[in-house]
Amino acid sequence: MTFIRLLCAILIVAHTNAWPSGVEDNMVIIANSAVPDKGISQSQARLIFTKDVKIWKNGVETSVVTMNRNNEMYSRFAREVLNLYPYQIDRSLERKRYAGIVHTEIVANSQEEMLQIVANTPGAIGYATKGVATNKPVKIIEVQQ
Amino acid sequence: MNKLRTASLCLALFFTTPAMADLSKNGNVYGFITQGYFKSTENNFYGKSKDGSFDFTEVGVGGEYTANAYLSASGLLLSRHAGLADDGHVRVDNLVFDLKAYRGENSVTGVRLGRNKIPFGFYNATRDVSFTRPTLLLPQSIYHDHSRNFLINADGLEAYHERWGDDTYTKFNFLYEKTNGINNPQTETYFLGMNWPGELESEYATGLVLNHAFNQGKTRVAAYYGHLPVKYKPGQMDPMPAGTIITDVAWLSAQHEILPKLTITAEMFLPRITHKGFGPIITDRSTYPMGWYVQGTYAHTAEWELYGRFDQSYRDKHDKNGELFAATTGRPAHMVYASDWTIGANYYPSANWMISAEFHRIKGTAFLPALDNPDISQMREKWNLLGLQAAYRFR
């Protein structure tokens, strides 16, 4: 019985991707397929996600899609892709928000919802794990160091 | 008040358009609550801190809504209790209608109308929101409490032009607005030495702001210039004549990431306050207060942030040691300067909580809130201050 319980636990953990599975687990930036950029620098990514840069080169407004602050995905994205801690990004965004500079963010409750919103919103930019984002109707944007 | 009622009605009508159904995608409601505790070895700061004071609470609830690609609105209701200097009444901190009039290839130009926050320095526009302050208290040499009332928000327009390059971001602002918070005992005492029977009234002030981020976003600089004219309207049997006070202020800010996770910030505040027409009570004169600070912040982990700062303020840069002040007024010299060494930490146990602790070693009493320290003979030049703070936010 103990062995079966252990086997079930292993299968559940593997199914929920709780074990890191290499590159597939890396966080990537995803964007609506109409967004003109293929690659951006890390500092450009920071300017976009803190809503300093507001418009893509094709004139479409950027729409930042993000997870709830408590979601581990947000924390991982901040550190691994932008090389910032969440409180640093939040401080930058809230210095605009509480000063009356509006930049309505769209909040997704799951990676699936994130993909759906990004795929259907012109100008949208967000993040997901590479494994989840691959072969989906969104563009993966390279971050050039 | 009538203008505010009209603006609030506009906001209500704005929110009740058919687009209300899309509120969850086009709008947000957010807020915070902050509670502080202060303990000082001498002098009182935010209440009777010599005995330990919990008289520091900030509560804010705000909302923002984007109606379409051109129009959005935002507002914040705030309650702030800070010793005897702020009684916690609910006020409209800002109420802004934003029109993005023109989009270029790499730029946006527009105008914000309503009650705008005054955008000098890096932190003034959100100084009452703890999660936007890098440290528990903002440097008191610049973001001082004793004359903060008229530096918070102003009614009028703010035009903006923002542009960005590959790794740069630049923003220009032009302000034409009347500052609020000018007619109250604290502000009158700051400008005229005491609370006189008449009223202070602000006229339209102009301001220019420049913000620029470059060097792959590692360096940010900002400059602000403001011209703020204020008139005094004498009351009945008022010995104080109808003079004017003109404040011209330059403000310079810089921030640089010198190592990953280690950021240095420095700001300098250079006002000129000119009194005219108040003779013989106050002779025509110009005064030059001054303040500056240098701060290091280290983002140690995802939970801990550490910082240290040196902060210097002078009520008059031509009388830095206060000897002239003491000779002419008979009051202690230490009332016109303050040097403040600070160390502190922010702890983020979860995304919505922040706990902060900060210790100050201070020489001088230039930034003490007057209402919390009515007896000058009790003031002491050298004092230490401990601050503790817990804050919660929601979005």
Provide the fold topology.
The complex is a heterodimer of chains A (145) and B (395).
Chain A: H1 2-15, E1 27-31, E2 39-41, H2 42-49, E3 63-67, H3 72-80, H4 86-97, E4 106-108, H5 111-120, E5 124-129, H6 130-133, E6 139-144
Parallel strand pairs in A: 2-6, 3-4, 3-5
Antiparallel strand pairs in A: 1-5, 1-6
Chain B: H1 2-15, H2 23-26, E1 27-40, E2 53-66, E3 71-82, E4 86-103, E5 107-117, E6 153-164, E7 169-179, H3 185-192, E8 199-202, E9 205-214, E10 219-233, E11 244-259, E12 262-276, E13 285-287, E14 290-298, E15 304-314, H4 323-329, E16 337-350, E17 353-363, E18 382-394
Antiparallel strand pairs in B: 1-2, 1-18, 2-3, 3-4, 4-5, 5-6, 6-7, 7-9, 8-10, 9-10, 10-11, 11-12, 12-13, 12-14, 14-15, 15-16, 16-17, 17-18
Written description of the protein model:
The complex is a heterodimer of chains A (145) and B (395). Chain A has 145 residues and is of the alpha/beta class. Chain A has six helices and six strands. Chain A has helices spanning 2-15, 42-49, 72-80, 86-97, 111-120, 130-133; strands spanning 27-31, 39-41, 63-67, 106-108, 124-129, 139-144. Chain A has a six-stranded mixed sheet, sandwiched between helices. Residues 11-23 of chain B have low confidence and may be disordered. The two termini of chain B are 29 Å apart. Chain B has helices spanning 2-15, 23-26, 185-192, 323-329, and strands at residues 27-40, 53-66, 71-82, 86-103, 107-117, 153-164, 169-179, 199-202, 205-214, 219-233, 244-259, 262-276, 285-287, 290-298, 304-314, 337-350, 353-363, 382-394. Chain B contains four helices and 18 strands.
